[in-house]
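Progress against Task 2.4 (sequence-to-structure conversion) is shown through the following example record, which the project officer requested during the mid-term review.
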Amino acid sequence: MSRDATEALIARYYAAFNAGDAAGMLACVAEDVEHRVNEGGIRRGRALFAAFCGHMGVSYREELRDLVIFATADGTRGAAEFVVHGQYLQTDPGLPEARGQRYVLPAGGFFEVRGGLIARVTTFYNLNDWTRQVSA
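Structure tokens generated for the chain above:
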């Protein structure tokens, strides 16, 4: 894949995220996708990724803004930097109680691309910052 194709794939993935389109996100990932969650475990496979997307859609409403996408020349790796503008809707186990709190959080994602699809996505953000914002 080319750099441009990888950047377009990542852009489609995040456009689907912003639209709340889990099916659109799933269309961008490989069947054996590896999803590495910030300060969490690794989910392997499209089914676990789909379950995660479903959970996120219930617990959070988020829009990614100021999106900047990068890719290697050979298109096998990519990255994105963005700012999450969100609202915490339903309490996640082990996290503060949800009361509709809003938050703004710098974040990023790293990607491996194989066969025209996202084979690995790793997400990073500052959990302490998020916790401080929703606990205020």
